[in-house]
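User: Can you help me understand a structure? I only have the sequence.
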Amino acid sequence: MRKICFLQLIFITIAFSADAQRGWGITVGPNLSKIKVTEEQSGNDQEFYKISPVIKFQVGIYKEIKATESIVITPSLLFIKKGYKTLKQDILGGQDRDRRYNFHPSYVQLPIDVVYRAKLNDKRAFDIGVGVYGAYGLGGKGHQEIKLDGNTVIDNSFDLVFLNKTKVTHENGGVTVNAGYSRPLDIGGGIVLNYIFMDNLSLKLNADHSFFNLYSKYSNGDKPVSKKYNQQLRLSLNYTL
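Assistant: Let's start by predicting it. Here is the structure, written out as tokens:
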């Protein structure tokens, strides 16, 4: 949480230190979201595992700052939906098991893009550069459907909970381990392409990837064996006021 507050401070400092001629803007658009997972090999060669992307959206504000004649810095503040869906197929007790999961987490995200701007004419320009972001998970929804030999045995929705560490509870002689959806803090970055086709309108593409593993740490301090990273293609229409 302290890291995301630090990023917010950067956003506020950069935005308000700029002179008045550098305008605020609003941004909105769709994104193609999924995760990348590396897992410990289970040795079960009968298991099929597939991760598929989903289409979500983001909306927010930004401040465009012209650092030099051709270098532009753009901090933003976004509400963004991410997500993915998975399909796992294996055999359980001689029955074909089909497990389908959908995850739809929500984040507040603070991207900072730094681009080189090449002017094409008085109204048009093209930007290329890199960006970094810090995001904090707010919550979200999930859904699971499990079938055995084609018959549905579980079909329900659930809330997504972000946890930095797994929670272990002992109740009625049993042990329950709750790892949550993932760690709430997500820091990443990627490449930025932006086409300005009018004085105050542009179309931007961001390709983002998490820098750090999002799986929650174990309560005993051990690091998780598996690793999970957010991946996104963000397309946004930007209007500078």
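Now, to help you interpret it: Residues 166 and 179 are 4 Å apart (CA to CA). The two ends are 31 Å apart (CA to CA). Let me know which part you'd like to focus on.
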